[in-house]
Fold:
Amino acid sequence: MTHARTGLTLVALGLAAAMSLAAPGASAQGTPAAKPAAKPAAKPDPKKAAEDAKKAEEQKKAEAAEDQKQADEAAAKAKAEEQKKAEEAAKAGPAPAATVEPPHEEWDIKDVTELPGKRYLFLGAQYQLNIIPQFMLNLFVDEGATVISNSVGVFLDMRKDGFSLIPSLSFTEYGTDDILFKQKGEKDIPGNYSFVNSGMAAIYAKADLLWSAQISKNVDFEYGAGFGLGILFGDLKNNWVYEDPNGALGAGNGKRYSKCQTGGVQPGCNSVEHKNTDILKVGDYSEPSWFDGGSKPVIFPWISIPQIGLRVKPVKNFMARLGIGFALTGFWFGLQGAYGLEQKPKP
Structure:
């Protein structure tokens, strides 16, 4: 009996222990367990923060120094390459200059258009017929005759924008047959008559200034003036005459005259009947020049105002000019032909 109670007592204690062990697990499933309290945050260390900042700054400086070093090395390398190229270029000599070809002009020999601002040159020859009408001589002397002379020369036509400057060099002959003259307004006596025979010539340096207005594609009307100076040379015969029914020289009064071969009392052949002279102008007397006290001119101006004409240009390299004008030596008619120096553009 006692052993039975003891066994029951042990069983009851075992059940109680088992129940006490099972109670905490049921409580954990039904009611949440309380969380453990959070630990307080640790305070920052100023010394460590300063060390970290210093390390970051040093790292930054090291990276910047590395970048600068790389940039310097790249610049030095580029400079060295440029210097090497320059040395090689100097050894090879100067490079040929680049040539830019101008635009090619179309070349048509029949296209005579002259472009604005461009200068055109023509080199040519000229002929000029000079006429001194008797009525012009009669402004200074009576009697006389119409005198005709010829001139030839060369010229250069420098043309730009419709204007031509034409310097020229020409030779003019002033030869005449025997011409009878009488002093202007004096009495009709042999002492006031003389004959003149010219074997003179002149070399002129002239310059014509001509403006033009286009009439058609190939023809221009020109107008302008000319100026120049001539040097005269040759003989100028100035001989007295006497009345002779069989003389070779006829006058407007119906009388005839012959040249005085010697001086004397014969009317017309003595100095008494001639004014302002003590020289016997007989026997084909040759007049001295101005430099020697005579009346033969040495220089003579060329002034031609106005002068007009036509300029004809059928092709690029040829030009012709027809002109007329009035000068101190009378009226003139001129003809010019010239070769144009304009060249075909090189390809």
Residues 26 and 32 are 11 Å apart (CA to CA). The two ends are 149 Å apart (CA to CA). Residues 1-34 have pLDDT under 50 and may be disordered.
